[in-house]
Write a structure and sequence with these properties.
Blueprint: H1 3-6, E1 8-11, H2 19-27, E2 35-38, H3 44-47, H4 55-61, E3 66-75, E4 83-86, E5 91-93, E6 105-108, E7 111-114, H5 118-122, E8 125-130, E9 141-143, H6 155-165, E10 168-170, E11 177-181, E12 186-188, E13 197-205
Antiparallel strand pairs: 1-11, 2-3, 3-13, 4-12, 5-7, 6-7, 8-11, 8-13, 9-10, 9-12
Length: 218
Amino acid sequence: MNLDEHGAAHLPGAAAPFLDALDAMAAALPQSRAGVRLTGVPQLGPLLAANALGRHAATLLGPSSRPVRAVLFDKSPETNWALGWHQDRTIAVQARADMPGFGPWTAKAGMIHVEPPFALIEAMVTVRIHLDPVGPQNAPLLIAPGSHAMGKLRDDAIAPAVSRCGSHACLAGRGDIWLYRTPIVHASARAENPTRRRVLQVDYSADNLPPPLAWSGV
């Protein structure tokens, strides 16, 4: 799987040196929620920096790359969900500031989100860090290879894009990383044989937002 051609790349074992610290961070978070949006977690910043797990994004985006949103997904027998095919089109910001090209606005888990000009999304990369193994029966992320290059897709264009590109199941071992172009079309099914599946998903950007907008960050 090639990042430029397919929009995704598998990096086996790339997070292995950081697993103990990631496990300790995850253990301090709520354990009964399917997804926890992370901000203000002191130990997380150094782990995601360009000299640590963020180096994979920095290689692509340059030295200005930094984490702008992080979510810990915790799928388990108690929190087993499905998510249909879609593109990630929103960013998390510190405060609302109405300006041309930004909108609509939403709130998710108390954090303010907005849909920015899509060029900003196209310039981002997403890093998914696997704290647990993900096999074919445990709801691996599904991607439509090559869909990252199709631009912003209307909702009624998502299914035709998947039909055209096909789908790929992103299997992973504990400590693996999957690196994505953020606009890639993706989905997640309910686990057929659910076991715990923790994934730390981090969006990176090298762009500044137009003032007074500011990234929420981690």
